[in-house]
Amino acid sequence: MALPKWRKGPGIYNESKNLPIYQHKATLQQAVKDNSFLVVTGETGSGKTTQLPQYLHQAGFWSNGKIGITQPRRVAAITVAQRVSQEMHCSLGREVGYQVRFDDCTTQDTVVKYMTDGCLLREILADPVLSQYSVVILDEAHERSLNTDILLGLLKQTLSSPDKASKGRCVPLKVVVMSATLETDKLSVFLGGCPVFTIPGRTFPVTSKFSCAIGPKDTESSVYVKEVVKVALDVHTSEMAGDILVFLTGQSEIEKACDMLYEKAESIDYRYDVQDHKVEGLLILPLYGSMPTDQQKQIFQPPPPGIRKCVVATNIAATSLTINGIKYIVDSGFVKQLNHNSRVGMDILEVVPISKSEALQRAGRAGRTSAGKCFRIYSPAFWEKCMPEYTVPEIQRTSLTAVILTLKCLGVHDVIRFPYLDRPEERFILEALKQLYQCDAIDRRGKVTRLGELMVEFPLPPGLTRALLQAASLGCEDLLLPVAAMLSVENIFIRPEKQKEADKKHRQLGVQAGSCNDFTMLLSVFEKCKASDAPSAWCKDNYIHWRALKSAFSVETQLREILLRLQKKRDFPMEKFDGNKSELFRRCLCTGYFTNVARRYGVLHNGWAWIHEHSIKSPKCILHISPHRSLFDQEAQLDWVIFHDLLVTSRIYIRTVCPIRYDWVKDLLPKLHEVDVYELSSVAREEVTDEEVAKWVTKEAAKRQTDVFKKLEKRNDESSVRDARARYLQRKQERQQGKAS
DNA sequence: GAGCACTGC
């Protein structure tokens, strides 16, 4: 993102005096002095992120410790720190600094520190009372990022028990929570009824219009893609100058929409159609996260005179990136979301309707510089029936294994009664406990084991960490470190127009590795590129995403450093293994991926999935995803695989796949089949009645058919195949008609 | 035929 050039000297000073927050300066300073907790709310443009830390600095808070400000995103932490250091006339890294992963720009002088919420959480692990800080500001709390939610709970818990709070501190910690105007009462109540400060913002009105095109039943991708294209073109031909931002769910949809826009925009006759004579052409730009950086930069350039810009984007444009000059929004009403399914114990990526608050946020992107318009392609009925009020916070829809392990390491034993702003369902917590117990991170009483203590040190999902530590204890960490790194970054395989050629190259890379599965393929790509003299050119030749691979290199280095530190410091477990390398590697993976197991279609009838097309094996193979319990002891040696993740679109796909033997899982994780619900409940909290447990067990049994599995079956049954075929034929026909005319 | 949202440590 291009950084704005800030004027130096008095200019800046005057500018910040004009911000809406300025007139509340003294009151805010006093309020932080008087209260342990404070909620500050204000829309974008109120200046709270840049000014409040400076006010607290001026009020002398720095003399008792640092002023820490958290952001959910790296870019925000860095750019805001840069700006504030200029406003305070100091060089970045001195009085004002920032810290994000791989980039610590702070010194001993740093008293105003911007950082990501994940960084502060890591600091809490080392220093639970945050003795270095006098004030902690949690910014963008309304976004409800997982880390911010955890921090909120931890700070509330620490500050509300006086002996904990004063331990190792001379002056009590102050906590300020900053949020957009949404749900601030709830925050205040959560923090013991603390005062709420409201600061007016500086945004322009945005008018929203519904259309009747998409009703509650139209959830088909091709339908809404077509509709957003139509609406975007309508806007282009009938509205005054100003750029357009279209929201869709993913790369393929965006590319389809862009193709359609190109095709249709060409045929517009600008002599008659366009009201505002300044607009004579349409510049169509796709925008999604995995796009090359230089292409992304193009988005921020102002369009040539007389040309209207139309950006077709994923949700990345909702919060992460701000594009200037946007005056019109076209909102598809859908988003791709990663949800956790606690019954199957897996995460599932799926397309869902956005929430009403998210729709408002999307609309708000049109009102940054002047009044704007938002065109919703869905009907009021869709709004009412399909869209929830608020987006379910991340903590209620993701796997909690990492969170629970972190909390346990911080000494929070009772993870069910931990003060969550929004409590995750109990079965999510129980399931996380179960998985942690099964992979030996906690013991029967819910206490963190040695292995668990080692695991929490790694910035990886617990399963992957478990596999890595297994490898380290067997002396083969060199096999797992690159794989863990590769799975932590965005997809490294590029599939451009020349898909077949790319696939062929990718497959060659994998096959040369000897034993071939998707995990060894990752290893092979990593090693081959590392060994290459010109890695960036090598990537281009092989259709590999160089930016992603480069970050995999630095992640690998970081993981290796952590591992070395742990191996030196503590009595690190060591084991022996006699067998071939391929088996060793796959056994290690089993210890982490025991939740993600599938086998070739057999007798049991629960859920089916396809191996994703990108897999090196690439058989169009139907698999059966299985929760272990029912399959234990049954044909255990049949074609089993473990997989990294699960994708639900028109079908269920498993991605990054590796064949295994089921008895490895059985050997490596003897606890896999021994846990029962009662034990877990007692692990989770001290007292639990038998009645409650019984209730839970019955509920569990009733839920045997999960939502996913129901969806699966529906999608796999004959009628839906027929429907899909009919839709395909219809599309084909339309395409032909389109060409003919 | 269909085929990888976005963050973060």
UniProtKB/TrEMBL annotation:
PANTHER family attached to this UniProt entry: ATP-DEPENDENT RNA HELICASE (PTHR18934), ATP-DEPENDENT RNA HELICASE DHX40-RELATED (PTHR18934:SF271)
Domain of life: Eukaryota
Protein name: RNA helicase
Enzyme class: hydrolase
All residue ranges annotated as the Helicase C-terminal domain in the record: 232-411
Gene Ontology molecular function: any one: RNA binding
InterPro entries attached to this UniProt entry: AAA_22, DEAD-box_helicase_OB_fold, DNA/RNA_helicase_DEAH_CS, HA2_WH, Helicase-assoc_dom, Helicase_ATP-bd, Helicase_C-like, P-loop_NTPase
Keywords of this entry: ATP-binding, Helicase, Hydrolase, mRNA processing, Nucleotide-binding
Catalyzed reactions: ATP + H2O = ADP + phosphate + H(+)
Family in the record: Belongs to the DEAD box helicase family. DEAH subfamily.
UniProt KW Hydrolase keyword: yes
A Pfam entry, by short name: AAA_22
E.C. numbers: 3.6.4.13
A biological-process GO annotation: mRNA processing
